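Supplementary notes for students who missed Thursday's class. We covered one full example, reproduced here. Read the sequence, then the structure, then the short commentary at the end.
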Amino acid sequence: MAIELLSPGAVDGEIRRKVKTPKMLHDGGGLYLQVARSGSVSWIFRYRSPVTRKSRDMGLGSAHKLGLKAARVEAKRLREAVHAGRDPIVERDKLKAKAGGAATFRQRFDFMMQQHPRHGWQRMLELHALPVIGDKLISAITTDDIISIIGGLLKQKRFETARKLQQRIQAVIKSATNSIDTVAHKQYICNTLPTFKKVRKNKPYSAIHYTELPAFVSDLRRRWHRAVAALALEFVILTVCRTGDVVGARHKGSPIDKRSMLWGDVDLKRRVWTVPAVKTADADDPKPFEVPLSNAAIDVLMRVQALKLNGHGPSDPVFASEFADGSKRMSTTAMSRLLNDAKLTFTVHGMRSAFRGYVSNVLHFEKDVIETTLAHRVFSTDKAEAAYKDQVTFFEKRRDLMDRWADYVTGKQVIKLSRSRAAA
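Structure (token representation):
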């Protein structure tokens, strides 16, 4: 069996490479360097379990922190364990379970975040959980501790925060005890706080009905024709993308911050906008996504250029405003504030719902084409088809769909806009 096939230079090259191509590079002896679409480069040990006889992949950590030499030493130790009839993953989980109760909640949470960072968790737990149970041993935390945290949020009517917080506290404790039956289980909390039973997920985003959208776009152009937020909103409507894909998503401490749309992402000759790492249903594996641009969408970009708010180089943001600190970017809430100022009840994200309603009820496009246009998962129920989903983009069909959607949105038919009408 050949081993040590990779060179330090090859590993360093994959880490430094700006444009990542998903791949698995074999070093031999079950050790692989995995390059993910998200850009992460990590070590994987692949082996056949001596217990179940099934192939298993065990993550060894990021290649940024674990060098080639250290990864080979660890892989050798794991090979010896397999040859001795032991399953490395099973042994690791047993050690975690054994040591979990001896760790504090804060230590266990920090360990989870190092292994798999979770967007939004850090801030929420720092505000509500860590001040109360952060320094307590996992084994010493009681349901009363959890109730004291959740109860305060329920009194403030912060139901969504209470729901998410309970789930996240339970996940941390479960990771230490290896059991879902923890002191943070929802049923235990409901025994003391019956109102917690009624806590449900937030309602879907309020959306404008598609029959009212042409009038809204006409009104948008007339009232805010020189406002960069209005131009960005019109572009979002025409491309049915997410807000974060245009203006970026800046969350303090988040590992999945994304930059705003740049002029370098736009190919006017091909009429294509490439989103570097669009959020899809495969949330852990964001990847580039090509959005066909209609003539109306390109017209928006030309109007942005005419405002001369910023440079038009490849690294310049498309939708930019001058801020007090001298930076040129656009607030992530600018489009929402525009709708709020106009006393409209629907949301920016709800525009995608209007698109879904129109193309389904009027154009009758194939479901997979619609879902791909919205950057949703397709072929999700058919495992055989799922293997080919990365190769199926429906690009030309999506271009036709985008052109017809733009014709409708910017068409001559104008229906009076009702500010009170909103569809969930």
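Commentary. The chain has 18 helices and nine strands. The longest strand covers residues 41-48. If anything here is unclear, bring it to office hours.
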